[in-house]
Amino acid sequence: MRAAFIRHTGPVENLVVAELPDPEPGPGQALVRVRAAAVNPIDTYVRSGAVAMDLPSPFVVGCDLAGDVAAVGPGVADLRPGDRVWGSNQGLLGRQGTFAELAAVDACWLYPLPDGVSYESAAASALVGLTAQLGLAEHAGLTRGETLFVNGGSGGVGSVVVQLAKAAGARVVVATGGRDKVDYCRGLGADAAIDYTHQNVGAELARLAPQGVDVWWETSRAPCLSTAVHALAPRGRLVLMAGRDARPEFPIGPFYAKCCKALGFVMFLESPDVQRRAAETINGRLAAGQLAVPIAHCGPLEETPALHHWQHAHTVLGERPLRGKLLVAP
Amino acid sequence: MRAAFIRHTGPVENLVVAELPDPEPGPGQALVRVRAAAVNPIDTYVRSGAVAMDLPSPFVVGCDLAGDVAAVGPGVADLRPGDRVWGSNQGLLGRQGTFAELAAVDACWLYPLPDGVSYESAAASALVGLTAQLGLAEHAGLTRGETLFVNGGSGGVGSVVVQLAKAAGARVVVATGGRDKVDYCRGLGADAAIDYTHQNVGAELARLAPQGVDVWWETSRAPCLSTAVHALAPRGRLVLMAGRDARPEFPIGPFYAKCCKALGFVMFLESPDVQRRAAETINGRLAAGQLAVPIAHCGPLEETPALHHWQHAHTVLGERPLRGKLLVAP
């Protein structure tokens, strides 16, 4: 099969697109013919070694996939050849990734792809959708009628948080940078969008949510926790899943005086059962047309190095715009 | 009745001990003949105005009490004159306090005093016991076999956290300052005690809890969250209920990568039902001899200004040692 892989962690140049032996489905696994796979920032961190993980060699990159079951290994009862599936959690914790024509995936990480939903849509929603839904439902415990704020509403995770929170009945306010992104966030369903390039987020939130925000979803790599804690309502929840190197000041007094919580999490450390619950909600939203993750670009497997470059230039360097997900269709 | 009260917030000198009209129990209230009342740091903050609250005038200070029901108002079914009771949550949120011969208290905040437990023991355990138990059970969700660390194991809340966590089956490590306090914490049941005056807390914890601590209970007014987050185990919980003016650096990366939570809370914002659940556990511990809050001093009501002075000198100025609670017996 054709695959995008590395033999050693390092720069984009370490990525090779070439032939590898077809994988075989082991016990409990399905062999998936990959129809679409999405790039996530963590793909670039694992590839570069910035996030240290035990990796097989060669190591196929990529977490997300959607495709068709080609075969199943021993002990797989719920999947059959021909089933349309999607999933994430690959290319992590020692598992092979998804940027290949075939992937052998533990069945616990595969979910049925609803009729009428494309492979591309499902792959684009996989990691970001699971992250958003896990954070909203399992961590923040968002309830109907609450106000949620997303700092970075146009980003990969942020844009899904907006849609899933709206579908869950929340009022959604975002901050984002620039007129285009404000319009983009409104198009995703945000009730209000603050343009941080010329508006003060704290002051605008005091106007838009004078009772405070119930959930503050932080996506910035350099968050201001003073603004966040100040804006939180009593019993507010602060969701943290980005900002790897950030060490902002944390105002403890108002945080505990308002009985707030800060909830850190990483999607891929959640259990298969918890993730399946999130996937079921995502399937419902996808099928109902309440979730549509924009796709910025979808190319052949050969473009994987270029897409890693683009993702890094956008997420880490802030040099290249990206409005939606980067995909390959192997 | 004799009472310790203020007419305006301000320094200790504003505290007057004199006669006030006897209160009458309103609907849903019990009139309690106060046998013991304990000083807590928040008493001094409310009195000084450092914590702004709506206060009646005159305002009787104090949160904690233990005593006998003298009479009940309309609609009180569960309490009868002569019942021995204890409670907290008074002198807060517009309610009158407990430093008086009589207090009219909403019955929802009163708990039965177990046979064989003294008024002094119950009053001394009230606010600190409820705080500790609420934090351990309702927020941190401490489970048997987990490792809990208390930064400040000899303090008012810390010393109760040690005892309640031990009684709940946790392994307990503390940090405290000086040989005497180390011995004191061991006497309370701590499995290990770090003396931060000449030991490095992070390094000692790495040795004592190489898998990380499951719950870090912070009581310092100037916490180091870098040390705390570094020491937390995967899915560790950081309990925050002190450090009103602290703004330490918060290392977001390791916090979310380990799926940690920071849990802020204030005891008196919890509901009566939740607090009653905590009080029932405390009663069980008191009756079983598993909880004994040391009493540093118990004097007459007239000593209230001196005790406020002592509490402030200890907690805020760090000038005067205090090993246990300060009480009055009106």
What's the SSE blueprint?
Two copies of one chain form a homodimer.
Chain A: E1 2-6, E2 16-19, E3 29-38, H1 41-48, E4 59-60, E5 65-72, E6 84-87, E7 102-106, E8 110-112, H2 119-140, E9 147-151, H3 156-167, E10 171-176, H4 179-188, E11 192-195, H5 201-208, E12 213-218, H6 225-231, E13 232-240, H7 252-257, E14 261-264, H8 272-287, E15 295-299, H9 304-315, E16 325-328
Parallel strand pairs in A: 9-10, 9-12, 10-11, 12-13, 13-14, 15-16
Antiparallel strand pairs in A: 1-2, 1-4, 3-5, 3-7, 3-16, 5-6, 6-8
Detailed description of the structure:
- Chain A has 330 residues and is an alpha/beta fold.
- Chain A has 2 domains: 2-113 and 294-328, Quinone Oxidoreductase, Chain A, domain 1; 127-267, Rossmann fold, CATH 3.40.50.
- In chain A, 31% of the residues lie in helices and 25% in strands.
- The first copy, chain A, has 9 helices and 16 strands.
- The first copy, chain A, has helices spanning 41-48, 119-140, 156-167, 179-188, 201-208, 225-231, 252-257, 272-287, 304-315; strands spanning 2-6, 16-19, 29-38, 59-60, 65-72, 84-87, 102-106, 110-112, 147-151, 171-176, 192-195, 213-218, 232-240, 261-264, 295-299, 325-328.
- In chain A, the strands form 3 sheets. In chain A, strands 3, 5, 6, 7, 8, 15 and 16 form a 7-stranded mixed sheet that branches. In chain A, strands 11-10-9-12-13-14 form a 6-stranded parallel sheet, sandwiched between helices. Chain A has a 3-stranded antiparallel sheet with strand order 2-1-4, with no helix packed on it.
- In chain A, strand 12, helix 6 and strand 13 form a beta-alpha-beta unit.
- In chain A, helix 5 packs parallel to helix 6 (225-231).
- Chain A is globular.
- Chain A starts with a strand and ends with a strand.
- The mean pLDDT of chain A is 96.
- Chain A binds chain B through residues 223, 225-226, 234, 240-253, 255-266, 269, and chain B through 223, 225-226, 234, 240-253, 255-266, 269.
- Strand 14 (261-264) of chain A pairs antiparallel with strand 14 of chain B.
